Amino acid sequence: MTELSAHLPQFQHGQLTENFPDNHLSNTNDNSERRRHDNSGRRRNDNPESETNGQPQNNIQQVVEQDEEEDEELTLKYGAKHVIMLFVPVTLCMVVVVATIKSVSFYTRKDGQLIYTPFTEETETVGQRALNSILNAAIMISVIIVMTILLVVLYKYRCYKVIHGWLIISSLLLLFFFSFIYLGEVFKTYNVAMDYITVALIIWNFGVVGMICIHWKGPLRLQQAYLIMISALMALVFIKYLPEWTAWLILAVISVYDLVAVLCPKGPLRMLVETAQERNETLFPALIYSSTMIWLVNMAEEDPEAQRKATKNSTYDKQAPANQTRNEDAEADDGGFSQEWQQQRDNRIGPIESTPESRAAVQALPSNSQTSEDPEERGVKLGLGDFIFYSVLVGKASATASGDWNTTLACFVAILIGLCLTLLLLAIFKKALPALPISITFGLVFYFATDNLVQPFMDQLAFHQFYI
Amino acid sequence: MFVGRETATAPLCGKSRHRKRAFFWLVSLLLASLVWFVSVRLSDRGDAALQRGLLGFGAAVSVLLQELFRFAYFKLLKKADEGLATISEDGRSPISLRQMAYVSGLSFGIISGVFSVINILADSIGPGTVGIHGDSPYYFITSAFLTMALVLLHTFWGVIFFDACEKRRYGCLGLVVASHLLTSGLTFLNPRYAASLGPIFIITLCTGLWAFVTAGGSFRSLLKCLSCKQEDDSRVMTYSALRVPCED
To answer: Where is this region: Disordered (chain A) (predicted)?
Structure first.
């Protein structure tokens, strides 16, 4: 497969004339003070050219067919690449969560519950426990729905400052407060002597760099690492404070909600995604994990505020290796940004100053400047809520399962297979899709099946040292 | 713009193939456990010999289901391979069936091995004494060797199985299934390790040689590989000659 991908872009060079839509697997997440709401949606930039390309009524039928074939090959190859690009961060997040759960006992200790789940599960009868957990899940889901609708309303009425402030407060909380607690517990577990001054320095640096990377600009890898870390932290909070049955119920209900919210015409997430597409903006990068830099070329930007926000959100980084060496050379020459690099950056991510001239220049950019864009750099986006809920599932499985590692492993494989299938569907349908339902369903099925059926079997086999 | 044709082949590359195969193995394990569980529930708990027999029955069912799923995976891969071949540029799929067979066997082996041994590994960290209740003190080391043998065996079986299915040699197929059953049965002789470990390793060696020959290896190719001779690959020359110079 790698040999094909190596020479296909060159094959494509002369023929790339349209703006390829980004295959996004984007789930927008909404931070409240103590948790993230997950809205999964994938999004495709609706460019007018892409709509005309599907028309078979074309005189040059063969060219169209050839384009279609090449597009298909691209879909296949980059479908596979996208799968790998998402496997790594999802795996990393889950590994961090499982490692923490296994070593730091703080996150498996029962220290009360969140105010969103007021009913306790320490009841006398099973029926009472079931009822309590259903009520807890209902309250939690309604809070999530309300928050999502609030976010959509704010977005629709262009209250960007409010949303931005909300996001900043929640990332502040996560990056400083939760990581402080996490660090403290890790030190307690390993009995490391530490003074407050060092801790303050560490947490301060960690938090500030995180805020800069997530909300402003930073190296792509660092931003991805921070997003993974805050997802893991959030997942750990959920694992600690959600009682068992409530957690499973919430997982089940939220995947149903995800399905409804993204696919129904009046679903809040779908409206969010469509509004973003109408305005030709990207959704909040603080809530979405992106595997490459966000492309903002050829956007008709009339709203200076949106443009400023959009350019703020784009992270600068190498696009293709060739560009990077050029950039590095330019920077090395001047010790700052050379005119050429600045010009290139303006062409790529849109002008920083929103002047009509620069905007006109961007819009007048010939589309074959896209040919220098490496098609392999079109990335996939996955919302942070998906990371969080996948990790919650795997973390809960490792925390409470009697089968221990077998169950954890089974859930892990199931979630990844679900993600794989979802990406496959994305490649087929090419529109925003929810990433939670399939994976969570597989994960839940495998958790309960492995814990109750496979584990006794494997246990007996291992006891007698039989192998199958 | 994109015609939504069969893109089922898209994720079947690299690591994702491992994941898909592991998934298939897990599903087979699930079904086998279901069968065993049901049978245990319906049986008398007190009878130890019956329980052991049921365990054996469950293991046999599991082995058969694993092979069945391996076959199903072969069918799926065949279809995907055809799809890949039709859309690729030179009419051949980029992954040969042999590579797929190898990866398939490896993934089956890895997930099977990991499932067998990970709990034992986790327990081996904790404080404890092996065999304090009269069991064999060699439990950990023999588990390690058995798992290794099983992983290798699954890899070899994968290669042979796919090749046999491709060439419709059902005798070979039956032999693979039989050797799997035999291996699993031999482990039932634990803790008499002389009786179980020895034959299992002999089986592993023989299956390895068989797989090597099936995959097209020979003594000569082995020598060539070991002597690290650079082969003149004319195909590479053709590609680079046809390659359009990339414009940066």
So the answer is: 1-66, 306-378
Residues of chain B with pLDDT under 50: 1-12
Q: Do B55 and A460 touch (CB under 8 A)?
A: yes
Q: How far apart are CA A276 and CA A270, in angstroms?
A: 10
Cβ separation A413–B22 shorter than 8 A: yes
Show residues of chain A in contact with B11, CB under 8 Å: 79-80, 83, 420, 423-424
To probe the interface with A, which of B5, B7, B9, B247 has the most A CB atoms within 10 Å? B7
ipTM: 0.78
Nearest beta carbon to residue B190 from set A73, A446, A464? A464
Query: Which tokens sit at A164?
Result: 């931005």
Euclidean distance between CA atoms A158 and B153, whole angstroms: 62
Compute the distance between CA of residue B11 and CA of residue A421 in angstroms, rounded to an integer. 8
What pLDDT was estimated at residue A60?
58
Per-residue confidence at A346, pLDDT binned at 50, 70, 90?
low
CA distance B86 to chain A (A): 10
**Residue contact A450–B30, C-beta within 8 A:** yes
Query: Which residue's entry shows tokens 């928050």?
Result: A147
Nearest residue of A to residue B107, measured between CA atoms: A413
Q: Are B207 and B156 in contact (CB under 8 A)?
A: yes
CB contact under 8 A, B59 and A461: yes
- Identify all chain B residues contacting A405, using CB atoms and an 8 Å cutoff: 118-119, 122
Beta strand A36-38 pairing with A29-31 = antiparallel
User: Distance of CA B124 to CAs B113, B127, B128, Å?
Assistant: 16, 8, 8
The pLDDT value given to residue B99:
84
pLDDT per position as a tens digit, A273-325: 888 888 888 777 788 888 876 544 433 444 444 444 434 333 333 333 344 34
Cross-chain Cβ contact A413/B111 below 8 Å: yes
What angle separates helix B48-87 from helix B97-125, to the nearest 10 degrees? 140
Q: Give this prediction's pTM.
A: 0.73
What chain B residue is nearest to A83 in terms of C-alpha separation?
A: B11
Q: Which residues of B touch A414 (CB under 8 A)?
A: 23, 26
Mean per-residue pLDDT, A337-355: 55
SS3 for B101-167 is HHHHHHHHHHHHHHHHHHHHHHHHHCCCCCCCCCCCCCHHHHHHHHHHHHHHHHHHHHHHHHHHHHC
